[in-house]
Amino acid sequence: MFYFRSMELTSVIYEKRGSVAYITLNRPDVFNAFDESQSYDLQAALKEAGKDAEVRVLVLSGAGKAFCSGQDLKAIAGSKNRSLSDSLYKRYNPIIKAMREMPKPIIGRINGVAAGAGASLALACDFIIAVDTASFIEVFVNVGLVPDSGSSYFLPKAISPARAFEMATMAPKVSAEKAMEWGLINRVVSAEVLDEEVSKVADYYANAPTMAIGMIKKMLNKAGHSDLQTMLQYEAYCQEIAGRSNDYREGVTAFNEKRKPAFKGN
Amino acid sequence: MFYFRSMELTSVIYEKRGSVAYITLNRPDVFNAFDESQSYDLQAALKEAGKDAEVRVLVLSGAGKAFCSGQDLKAIAGSKNRSLSDSLYKRYNPIIKAMREMPKPIIGRINGVAAGAGASLALACDFIIAVDTASFIEVFVNVGLVPDSGSSYFLPKAISPARAFEMATMAPKVSAEKAMEWGLINRVVSAEVLDEEVSKVADYYANAPTMAIGMIKKMLNKAGHSDLQTMLQYEAYCQEIAGRSNDYREGVTAFNEKRKPAFKGN
Amino acid sequence: MFYFRSMELTSVIYEKRGSVAYITLNRPDVFNAFDESQSYDLQAALKEAGKDAEVRVLVLSGAGKAFCSGQDLKAIAGSKNRSLSDSLYKRYNPIIKAMREMPKPIIGRINGVAAGAGASLALACDFIIAVDTASFIEVFVNVGLVPDSGSSYFLPKAISPARAFEMATMAPKVSAEKAMEWGLINRVVSAEVLDEEVSKVADYYANAPTMAIGMIKKMLNKAGHSDLQTMLQYEAYCQEIAGRSNDYREGVTAFNEKRKPAFKGN
Predict the structure, then answer these.
(1) Most C CBs within 10 Å, among B228, B259, B260, to test the C interface
(2) How many domains does chain A have?
(3) B194 to B112, B173, C134: CA distances (angstroms)
(4) Would C125 disulfide with which of A28, B164, C73, C108, CB 3.0-4.6 Å?
């Protein structure tokens, strides 16, 4: 396996292998808690993956034992009168928007605890694979805060109001298994096969019709607050574009020739 | 059992028994894949069921082994520069809109595979009964397309974003059992009792307060993108109408007389 | 245990113990069916709990065997040409709006059947604990009516369209266990431990950062019909307020001192 490290960042590792970009939060000593550096590095890594036409799928992960433990409270211990709103507008919201607006699938490799903004980050992924020891905790309320970085949006889309209220106001440790049962995530696997499973999914998306998948992502985003008529029109709009793609031509040809299609992503 | 075949169509069978209209896709040799004929016949059948005041419930099904395998790719093999958008506007979207806007319950009798637009068709039904060998597959992505015919709307209303993304972008074969567990459908039964179960549910709706049920369908449609205040007002509007119906008078009278109500549907 | 009965009402009991307000529907002979008196008493009790700054959490329950059996059909047996819309605007909708707009958590103690408007009342709670013999039934359709008091809003937010349609149009008796599996509620417990479980949850909220929890409630309400961008902005707005609260200061201090925070609710 050859990884090309195309960017040098401080708190995030950005690697590329073929069409797959691997973005790894890299502050393992503090369970990949966000300080300013990690926030801006993650923004830069997402930007790079977005603009690199070769990249057809991203894998977001954490180094060490945790996926991401959210905001580093020690990093802000000294700062008085810090505006949390500013912090969201500058650091966290651009990350979440970049992830949701990027027309490429993002696989969350949840290798351990995902807490606070770390839980939001996990839920902002499109396809979520968790190790069986991972957990999801909306810890904000434990320090008198509200869920941010998109959690207030992601939770009620994925789970019922009763469950969302409990997660957001009681901060229970939701196990990977429970998250799977509730539909928050796509896979739970043992540590031994985590990377194998992530590779399998990444390989699928690396060879999938990327342009169509980018539009599907947008469609599902839009459906969350749209009526049927709006979605039927949007489907027609997207399908017209998909129908003019090389991948569609290849897909139909391969179907008629009874072979596997070779999608180029455009 | 006497069925009255009130319309002669080429690719769809339209039968009426009492207050129940049975609409059956009838191209079993191609697993009821949609060609132009089947699309327009289904539109006509839905129109007929909608305007026939005697019809209080519809049963939508497929002839043979499959429910519906979606667009017939062979039927379009010769057509170059075919506009997929046109096809949706003329053929598929009118079907889905007719189904969702019809103020009568539609039972999906999912007798086998429901793939592509066939999966959308199944999910557009109000009450879904599947045989245990049936499956739901959003096959669009396999030829480089995006889900259409309402699937991008139905999936995220029924299941979580993670599951909807997986179904839409990976086209897994979702078994009837899994669809039941996820809440996509209402019943899974063996082939032996499929028609018995469908009859039971059709009988219920054939004798239910149809006007109220039509309004309930509209209310649940509207709730998907509305806030609480809007829905409380809409509930009051609909309840005022229901409260002036013959069925409400009969319902309260029957309740006080401790007997089963005889609803006429108006 | 000392309860302070601060209001004298006819059909509802209002008690306060510490920061917890206990509101109990008290027409056990008719399974706490709503007549005018119980509707207006519940409005008054909710208003009292809302304006009493000492109250940080509410527990809503029913006296006797049932939680609430909905509208008392006998109470309206004599009234001809009664407007159901008027009844909703004056009696039920203000209850549901007060519950959902109150920036304090409401625990539903579902001690028995919750039917019709009683089911709506249960689903309007934030955290729902049911005894294992309880059930939820949208009985409206049985007398030719449509779900009201918010049920048409709550059902499709909590469960899939297929399940919501079945509950609303067939009025099945949904057991507490099934409601738990579907995510409609948070806990199912035996009768012996119901009050213990309710106390545990009430104690948690009585000592939680109430202002943040009030905002979380608003955020989750809003998320149901909002897009990501709207929610990211609203999160920033709410977090800025939370970040200036005494509870946040206490939360961070306690975290750094490795002790349990003592939240005052402001």
Answers:
(1) B228
(2) 2
(3) 11, 21, 31
(4) C108
